[in-house]
Amino acid sequence: MFSFSKHSDTFSLFYQDRFQYTLEKKYVVGQTTYLFTRESYRFKYRIEFADWKQINMDTGKERKVLRRPLFVSIADITSKL
Question: Is residue 52 within 8 Å of residue 62, measured between CB atoms?
C-alpha cells in the first residue's frame, strides 16, 4: 500500500481504490515517474519512485512517499481456496 506524508512523521494512505493497484503496477514494472490528477482535485502530481516523493506540479510542494506491502494472512489465503 502506498502512503504519503501529511506532516513530518504522519503518513496517510493514497486513495484506496484502483489507484493503489496502479501505483503498485507502475512500481513493479520499473517505471520511475508517474503523473496523475484526481477528478475531485485541481492539482497535478508527479510521483518519483526512485526518490520516494510526490511533487505537486502546480505549487512545487514535495512530500515523502512510502510503500508498504499489504499483509496477507494464512486465513485470507485459505478462505479463498
Answer: no
DSSP 77: H
Are the C-beta atoms of residues 67 and 4 closer than 8 Å to each other? no
Q: How far is CA 10 from the centre of its chain?
A: 15
Q: Which CATH architecture has domain 2-79?
A: 2-Layer Sandwich (3.30)
Domain ranges of the chain: 2-79
| Residues across the chain | 81
pTM score over 0.85: no
Report residue 60 as a C-alpha cell: 512545487
- Over residues 7-49, the pLDDT tens digits come to 667 777 777 778 888 888 898 899 999 999 877 778 899 999 9
